[in-house]
Structures are given as C-alpha cells and as structure tokens.
C-alpha cells in the first residue's frame, strides 16, 4: 500500500515539475501589473520593393477612360488569376508599367506617394482623377513552435508580430518568448533580428511591425511543459483518480 501511494505521489510530482510558470508564458511581463500609456515610435508605412504586386485603381467621371486603367472592373474573372493577385508587378528595377502613363519608378515609395505620383502625371491631361493603391500580395510566414505554422496573407498594410502570431494560433507553452526571430530581406540582403516578447521595449522596435515576406521563427524550449492554469483545472480529476485507485487497492486487500 505504501509503495502505491509513493508511486502516485511521484506521478503528481512529475506533473507539477512540468508546469510552466506564468512569467514564461505571458507576454510583456514588465507591464502585466501596471496600466497606462507608453510613447512608441510612429508607424512607418511599408516601402514598396521589387516583387510586390500593386492594385492601382484610377477613376474619373468618364467611365470609358476609367476602363482603360481598370479593365478588370468590366471583366473581374481573368483566366489563371484571382482577385488578390491581379495588379501591377514591380519589376527587378523597381518599375511598374501603367496604361497611358508608361513606366514609373516605385521602389522604396509608400502607397500614398505612388498615389500622388500617378495623380500628378494624369492631372496634366485629365481632371478630377482619383487614385488608390494597395499592396495585394502582402504575406508573412510563421514557423516553429506555434499552433498552426504557415504563410498568411495580410489584408491591410499594417501587421505586427503579434498579429502574425495570432493568425498562427499563438505560440505553444514550450515556445521561447524572449528570443523570437524575424527574418527580413531588403535589396537582396537578409537581416536577422531577435525580439524579446517578454519585454515591452519590443513594442518600439522597428521590427515590431512586419514587412512583406517577413519570416517569424519561434524557437522551442527544452521540453514540453504544462501551463499552471491547465493543471489547476485537471487537479481535481487527478486527486479523484488517486482516491479511486487507493479505494480499489484497499477493497482487494
């Protein structure tokens, strides 16, 4: 009997030793116990790079002229394509080729600056021109110790590392939160930066907001752990099981 009880206590001890502390699982531990506001670096708009696909919508009061710039409005279904992929590809030299206007240089410009550039050129021959530019192939990849690793399309121009992790189902309880890597390629050069998601200073990092084709890699810890909150939920069942086993042993003696 004593050996059985010692065995059950040993099992319970193993479960308890596998518990992950809240400080290892929570984000931004240094602000968890306080409230208020912090000054962050202003958001910087994405800069367009070769390989980006831009959806540029140009409208005027003349529908015939508008159709020249927006042929997909009249025929939205194009063989071999889909709504997200239709647009103007930024070539390796940083140019796009627009109807009537021809080639314009867009590398390292924001979508707002492209709007102004296109509108300025068209205003020389047209009036009441409206221009809207969107990056339509914005995606990020999340790999490593997350619930659902993969590549994710971003519908807006702004997405933080927290947005990407949320789309991937969040990090698991074994993930290393103070050493999350962001891999970014600009002008053919890759940059590797690690972020500490336990520290609120990460919110001010220039890598907190992601760029197109960024890769987020989450490392795994030394072993799988159980969150304390999960063990608290299971503890009554564990105690009941121990009591049941003890009762069965006593009845068969």
From TrEMBL:
Q: Name one GO molecular function term.
A: porin activity
List where in the cell it is found. Cell outer membrane
Gene source species:
Chitinophaga eiseniae
Key word Signal present = yes
Tell me the superkingdom of the source.
Bacteria
State which residue ranges cross the membrane.
Answer: 231-251
Name of the protein in its database record: Polysaccharide export outer membrane protein
Q: What membrane topology is given?
A: Multi-pass membrane protein
Keywords carried by this UniProt record: Cell outer membrane, Ion transport, Lipoprotein, Membrane, Palmitate, Polysaccharide transport, Porin, Signal, Sugar transport, Transmembrane, Transmembrane beta strand, Transmembrane helix, Transport
Q: Which family does it belong to?
A: Belongs to the BexD/CtrA/VexA family.
SLBB domain mapped to chain residues:
139-218
Entry's Pfam families? Poly_export, SLBB_2
């Amino acid at each position: 009997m004593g050996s059985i009880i010692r065995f059950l206590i040993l099992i319970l001890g193993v479960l308890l030793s596998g518990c992950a502390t809240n400080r290892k699982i929570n984000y931004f531990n240094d602000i968890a116990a306080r409230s208020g506001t912090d000054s962050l670096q202003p958001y910087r708009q994405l800069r367009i790079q070769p390989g980006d696909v831009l959806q540029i919508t140009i409208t005027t009061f003349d529908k015939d002229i508008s159709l020249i710039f927006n042929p997909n409005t009249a025929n939205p279904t194009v063989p071999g394509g889909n709504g997200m992929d239709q647009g103007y590809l930024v070539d390796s030299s940083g140019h796009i080729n627009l109807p009537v206007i021809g080639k314009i240089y867009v590398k390292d410009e924001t979508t707002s600056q492209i709007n102004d550039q296109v509108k300025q050129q068209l205003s020389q021959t047209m009036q009441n021109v409206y221009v809207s530019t969107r990056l339509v192939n914005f995606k990020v990849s999340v790999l490593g110790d997350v619930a659902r690793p993969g590549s994710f399309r971003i519908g807006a121009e702004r997405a933080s590392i927290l947005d990407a992790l949320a789309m991937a189902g969040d990090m698991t309880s074994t993930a290393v939160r103070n050493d999350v890597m962001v891999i970014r390629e600009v002008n053919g050069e890759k940059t590797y930066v690690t972020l500490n998601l336990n520290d609120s200073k990460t919110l001010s990092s220039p890598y907190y907001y992601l760029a197109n084709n960024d890769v987020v890699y989450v490392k795994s810890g030394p072993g799988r752990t159980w969150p304390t909150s999960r063990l608290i939920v299971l503890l009554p069942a564990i105690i009941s099981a121990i009591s049941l086993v003890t009762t069965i042993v006593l009845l068969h003696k």
